[in-house]
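README, section 4: Worked example with a bound small molecule

Sections 1 through 3 covered apo chains. Here we extend the same pipeline to holo records, where the ligand is supplied as SMILES alongside the sequence. The molecule in this example is NAP. Nothing else about the input changes; the structure line simply encodes the ligand pose together with the chain.
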Amino acid sequence: MKTALITGATSGIGKATAFELARAQLHLVLLARDSDRGNQLIQELKEKTGNPKIELLIADLSSQNQIQAAAKEFLQNHSPLNILINNAGVAIKQRTFSVDSIEMTFAVNHIAHFLLTNLLLDALKDGAPSRIINVSSEAHRNGQFDPDNLQGEKQYSQFRAYSNSKLCNVLFTHELARKLKDTGATVNALHPGFLNTAIFRDTGGLLKAIVRLAAKKPEVGGRAIARLALDPVLENVSGKYFNGLRMVNSSEKSHDEADAKQLWEISERLTQSESN
Ligand SMILES: NC(=O)c1ccc[n+]([C@@H]2O[C@H](COP(=O)([O-])OP(=O)(O)OC[C@H]3O[C@@H](n4cnc5c(N)ncnc54)[C@H](OP(=O)(O)O)[C@@H]3O)[C@@H](O)[C@H]2O)c1
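The generated complex, written as structure tokens:
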């Protein structure tokens, strides 16, 4: 039985993905920050899919200590890992900081998943053929890689910080794919679609109105992610970007190898990890 770990499964696209993978009868480990909501979701998933193998891992992804503890617990109880879905994400209006003093959007959307993935990398290699899926966004096309403004040091806006973090997701995907070559573990990024979820809760009225009118249901994203996780045709595909079900070219900036390498080094410094 394959084991899949999903971050951000308590809402929106992550929840829809959890349903898809539970229906496929995978062993699921859901990483969530709120145990009550996590347990409620597990009960709902078990009842509606008949899948008994669904477990909870508690961590607030804005805390590196909590990520370390969750990874340790995973390695002790659930290793090896076949599918890692780095899905949790935020779009934060005001520039705020995590307990590790890292700007919150960058901390949750990129740094948390950089750390979690590196801590689970041996488990993923043991679980090969294994897949990592980084949930990015078409917003990455508006992102800039400026090492001096990764945390909004020079300029912060919700849209800018979010787009930059989503570009980091794709740069990370490309660098990790180079490092994972010939290991049997693959990594791809995707835009799950423009979908009506809670991520727009802090955005302006106009965008909220557009979401109500034009966004699709989160299930559309859940199906796209599940397809990347399970479709045998994609077993050896790595370092690619998907818009929903279609493999497309990510932005030119996301292919800059020097930027990807620099982001990796900065991320290592900020997590004090010894990954390579
Ligand atoms: N919706 C779209 O149109 C769209 C488009 C492109 C890309 N995306 C991407 O899709 C992914 C999922 O977003 P969504 O739209 O489904 O949004 P959502 O409904 O707000 O779900 C976000 C998930 O991330 C979790 N999360 C946030 N901060 C966390 C933290 N500090 N620790 C642990 N978990 C945390 C949330 O947990 P709680 O339930 O506890 O808050 C929730 O489960 C994101 O990466 C987003 O960038 C979304």
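What to look for in the output: The chain has nine helices and eight strands. The first strand starts at residue 3 and ends at 7.

Section 5 describes how to batch many such records.
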